[in-house]
């Protein structure tokens, strides 16, 4: 049966937007990692913390076993800091092959690197045991998994170090974090805040997206006007905006910290409600999309705070073009690997790069909007299959 879809263009931002009251409101966020950790340190990017951890843990010149399915910027940060990445197998269901990790441990290995994909926990207990047996550091990448747990176990408490990205899950202008676990003390100074102009530019963009999301055509017109004024103003004043969500590591930004305004907005978040809404939205998409695109992960385990819904399609480019045209700001998730990783050696990771689209399921999206989105997605997938 053909989908019956409204013809109007949607506005579905890829990330949550800032509501004005969040600048003044206060809540207790200490019940969630990384905010509950006494060793928490903030950075502008999570990649800055990854770079620093190599220096801090004495991993320069040593091999770090990293997943074949990766963004690439974390690998660049490791390499720039002086580490040597060596890749291990990740299966077609985001499943880490722990036995392959074990086989690749050698005399030069200094650390294991575990990524939790989109909020779904990797085999943290098995990797911890493997690291301990071989006297290795465990680096736990939670950049895609803020607020997520494996059942009742928070992600980020197992690795010797754990990294988090705040702006992927929360409506903040910047922000990464590092937690140091274990008994060994390390002195990590708080880096200086970023330029105020950069923070305010990101903040204004998020507020305008929120206005468009809630205000329909009128909100869209206001946002378009302000975007035009902002572009002209930036050109005149040459505001140095440090972009987030970029694809490459830049040493020039490694010493940047998180803005005080980001911390203020973090403290305004209702974190239990965010987890609940993201899970609700994921379940809705799972129920409406599994018929046209077999789910990468058929279940949503207890404790998982999903970052997005992974839509697996054969014709990725065609579906992306259709969804972008419909106003759904989905993301071409991790299409390219780091040049040091040979795609022929890891066919499952290469297959994921060809097929996975990041579909938003964040806390700003209502069930009604999610239902309309799902209809557009179903139509786009079916059209790509003709």
Overview of this protein structure:
- The N terminus is likely disordered.
- The two termini are 14 Å apart.
- By secondary structure, the chain is α/β, with parallel strands linked by helices.
- The chain has ten helices and twelve strands.
**How widely separated are the two ends?**
14 Å
Helicity level: 25-40%
CATH superfamily of the largest domain: Type I PLP-dependent aspartate aminotransferase-like (Major domain)
Q: CATH topology of the largest domain, which one? A: Aspartate Aminotransferase, domain 2
What's the order of the H and E elements? EHEHEHEHEEEEEHHHEHEHEH
The total number of structural domains is 3
CATH architectural designation of the largest domain: 3-Layer(aba) Sandwich
Q: How confident overall, as mean pLDDT?
A: 91
Largest sheet, described in full?
Answer: 7 strands, mixed
| Main sheet strand line-up | 1-9-8-5-4-2-3
The rough form would be described as globular
At the first level of CATH, the class of the largest domain is Alpha Beta
* Structural class computed from helices and strand pairing: alpha/beta
Question: Any descriptors?
Answer:
Aspartate Aminotransferase, domain 2, 386 residues, Aspartate Aminotransferase, domain 1, 3 domains, 12 strands, 13% strand, alpha/beta, three-stranded antiparallel β-sheet, 37% helix
Strand and helix map with partners:
Elements: E1 41-43, H1 46-56, E2 63-67, H2 73-80, E3 84-88, H3 98-104, E4 109-115, H4 124-133, E5 137-142, E6 149-150, E7 153-154, E8 161-165, E9 176-180, H5 196-237, H6 260-266, H7 271-289, E10 308-312, H8 316-325, E11 331-332, H9 347-355, E12 356-360, H10 367-384
